[in-house]
Amino acid sequence: MSDLTTTVDRYLAIWNEADADKRAAAIAELFTADAPYIDPLAAVEGHEGFGAVVAGAREQFKGLTFELHGTVDAHHNQARFQWGLVTEPGAEPIAIGFDVLVADEAGRVKAVYGFLDKVPAA
């Protein structure tokens, strides 16, 4: 099993990558081809589906950054972790989520299941 903390760091970096081509390359490198991404707002599969979700979030939350909150808890090729959407590093998050990431033996993401703990006010 690979280091899932590193996998989570790479996953969050995809959400923060502004360049669409670099983001697509990072998704292709980190995710298996048919990996589902499921959260309360989306249920997609594959590189293009996940890429579209990230692009939509980046458009909706321009200038904000996803950061890891706390530590990654991992076992048996799965990791759970909390993230925050912040205006600047260390700031109070405007959104907080909890994701479960499942990886294959090589450390590639084969599924992500997300939950929203705090959403921005309308």
TrEMBL record:
Domain SnoaL-like: 8-95
Cross-referenced InterPro entries: NTF2-like_dom_sf, SnoaL-like
SUPFAM superfamilies: NTF2-like
A Pfam family that the UniProt record links to this protein: SnoaL_2
Coiled-coil annotated spans: none
Protein name: Polyketide cyclase
